[in-house]
Amino acid sequence: MKPIKLVHLYPERMSIYGDYGNIIALQQRMDWRGIKNSVVNIEVGSKIPHDTDLIFIGGGQDRGQVIVADDLASKAEQIKQFVESGGPLLAVCGGYQLLGEYFISNDYGQLNGIGLFNVVSKATNQRMIGNIVVQSDRFGKLIGFENHSGATEYVGRAQPLGKVIKGFGNNPHDKLEGITYKNAIGTYLHGSFLPKNPKVCDWLIGKAIAKSGQSIKLKPLGDSLEKRARNSSLGRP
Amino acid sequence: MRSLFAILAAKTAFRINRLTGTGGTSLPGMVAQKIDKDILAKLIKNNFPRGVIVVTGTNGKTTTTKLIADILESNGISYVYNRTGSNMERGLITSVAIESNIVGKVSAEVGLFEVDEAYLPKVCRAIQPNVILVSNLFRDQLDRFGELDKIARSFRNLIEDLESTQLVLNADDPLVASLGYQLENEKKVTYFGVGDYSGPKLQHDRTADSIFDPFTQEKLYYTQHYFSHLGKYRGKGGAFRRPKPDYQANNLKQNGIESIQFDINSANKPVVLKIPGIFNVYNAMGAFAAVKASLNLEDDQITKALAGSAAAFGRSEVLNYNGREALILLIKNPTGLNQIIQTYLLSEDDRLLVFIINDSYADGRDISWLWDSALEDLAQYKGKVLVGGSRADDMALRLKYAGIKDVLAESNEAELLKLILKHSSKRSKLFILPTYTAMLSVRSQIVASDELQKEYWQ
Fold first, then answer.
1. Per-residue buried b or exposed e for A137-158, using 16+ beta carbons within 10 Å of the residue's own CB
2. Which of A129, B102, B250, B272 sits at a 20 to 30 Å CA gap from A28?
């Protein structure tokens, strides 16, 4: 089989909230099933490979985001085309904001996004911090931690990732969290997102395999530890 | 008059605390502050004829402060310090108020305080210290501190505002070193660093945050990389580069987990530090540089004291638990945990690993940092790992994804302590890695059981 190629976008500047956990989860859940895979780190100035099967982008400090926003402009068409053709993508926190229309930061003014997601984000003086639980139609309960001062609003047509049961989500008022568009997901959940939400992880892996033009049925994994960690997280304030 | 009442109130609160056994070193300070909001400045500014030293940074504050205290102690210099690591405003007030007389006079010559990064600007504007030592800035409790850049910016604004404070900075941390660059009002800056390191390194270090030129944002070029973003670096074009350290540790030699030795500025006599690891070399070098910058002591007088120094409370502290040697190794962020892994856990002794992960406010509510740490470096570890704390199941999950198979989770502390005995023998070394609140709790349990045993045998 052809190895599945994961692209980690900007790990040096955009991986501050346990974002590596998402890459670790994707890789391990493929390894455990004997699915060959590799991770390519793409930093500012380098190109996304044409045979990419999945893209991940995490969150960063505001200063890192300024440089990343600049660089993303040169990758915008390729990323959009990747998603339009069914490529799976996960964007967390700062990465989610920069794949929207724009992000207005406190210190650096407006940063243009690439407009993949129909959202706009704006820094607020309120930090939205804490454990978060989201009910998603497609994935069931999603569990994570959020820590952001940017508030995100939908513009135009948008499919939320889910409804907030506990925590903030996109912003302090509408009780909605994240966005999905085709096979792309934007979310504020870290902590890390994929290890504790294996359904989302396996869904992304399935889409990545399809993107690579192969067909492999995903064997179920014994997720007992995942379930335990989910349950005990639900009990935390 | 107001400050007189404030001091009296703090002293009373402290005595009541001690009598009732309800610890808490911040309450007396809080009471005093309620009565006189300027009490901190009054207590500290009118005392300490030989100066006030402040220690801050992400990791190593408590150890560095203790090393400085040991240096002062062994050279007969009297001092006051916040020994318990209570390092916010109120903790500082308490530590001075209990040592002062009723009009706020302290007999000690030096004031020595570790200060929480988030409180540094406020505290230092009030007390105008003679020396601020900044050891390092790593990602840490992002839910509480916010991002590194913001912390650094608040430090920089503070430094610009202070009139006569000297800086002691880690040359090997680009963000810390940059605090001494291009200051508007010239200040004395003393740099310390490490010249070379050839000891063990981790394969999965994901914690390098400040690898960009703080002024141009271009990536720094490293000729040597020790851990996280510490090493020898220079920016493109060379305007910003690692400053030449005034005090540099060379020829580091790790002796198992017993000690580490090094020399300072290539002096003939090596220093043997009883707390191992390159991170403790940084702590010792910071202490050395801060003392050199502020007090008139010879190198020998300092290094002799360093060699005699033992670990601070809960930081590489060795205790006895039912005949087993138990090391308590506080962990609170990925860089700190990585340093513990690198220093202690890569060897093959008969040992039991115990992680205790709590998510109370003082631990940091967010435990996602566990995923940024280099636990994959332990994938070859064959023994059992016990995990406890309110986030035991999360830690078990993290270890599963790191490829570690034999993991047992127990969030109840009493049960966990029993499991530790069950899965170890008197030959075993226990490596207990707790977060902050877990450390306070498990440490007191182990100390209590040790005392109980001693009484029995007497």
1. eebeebbbbbbbbbbbbbeeeb
2. A129
Q: Is the distance from CB of B87 to CB of B4 less than 8 angstroms?
A: no
CB atoms within 10 A of CB B238: 8
Mutate to test the interface with A, among B363, B366, B405 (most CBs of A within 10 A): B366
Answer whether B81's CB lies under 8 Å from B109's CB: no
**Strand, coil or helix: what is A51?**
coil
* CB contacts, 8 Å: B208 with chain A: 12
CA B141 to chain centre: 14
What CATH code would you report for B2-247+277-308?
3.40.1190.10
Interface contact A61-B148, CB threshold 8 A:
yes
The residue of B393, B400, B405, B435 whose CB has the most chain A CBs within 10 angstroms, and thus the best one to mutate to test that interface, is B393
Prior bond of A215 cis (ω within 30°)? no
Query: Has A190 been annotated as catalytic?
Result: yes
- Ranges of residues in chain A whose predicted pLDDT is under 70: none
Domain with residue A89: its CATH number is: 3.40.50.880
Range of the domain at A111: 4-234
B18 touching A, CB under 8 A?
Answer: no
Q: Which two tokens stand for residue A115?
A: 């407009």
* B189-194/B166-170 β-pairing: parallel
Nearest to A17 among B142, B359, B391 (CB): B142
**Other CB atoms within 10 Å distance of the CB of residue B297:** 16
Coil, helix or strand for B340?
A: helix
Q: What are the b/e assignments for B148-158, b being 16+ CB within 10 Å? A: bbbbbebbbeb
Q: For residues B336 and B358, give the distance between their C-alpha atoms in angstroms, rounded to a whole number.
A: 16
For B38-50, what is each residue's pLDDT tens digit?
Answer: 999 999 988 999 9
Please tell me which of the candidates B147, B212, B376 has its beta carbon nearest to residue A62: B147
- Give the number of other CB atoms < 10 A from CB of residue B223: 9
Looking up tokens 């945050």, which residue turns up? B209
Q: Are B360 and B437 in contact (CB under 8 A)?
A: yes
Using only C-alpha atoms, chain B has a radius of gyration, in whole angstroms, of 22
Express as a percent the part of chain B with pLDDT over 70. Answer: 97
Q: How far apart are CA B3 and CA B8, in angstroms?
A: 8
ipTM over 0.85: yes
Q: Which residue has the tokens 């100066």?
A: B51
Phi, psi for residue B18 in degrees, rounded to 5: -70, -40
**Number of structural domains, chain A?**
1
Give the H/E segment covering residue B114. strand B110-114
Distance CA A197, CA B282 (A): 40
Structure tokens at A21: 């956990």
- Which tokens hold the place of B282? 């940084």
Q: What is the pLDDT of residues A162-194, one digit of tens each?
A: 999 999 999 999 999 999 999 999 999 997 899
The SS3 of residue A96 is helix
What fold does the segment set B315-457 form as a domain?
Protein-Tyrosine Phosphatase; Chain A (3.90.190)
Which of A8, A148, A190, A201 is the catalytic position?
A: A190
Domain ranges across chain B: 2-247+277-308, 315-457
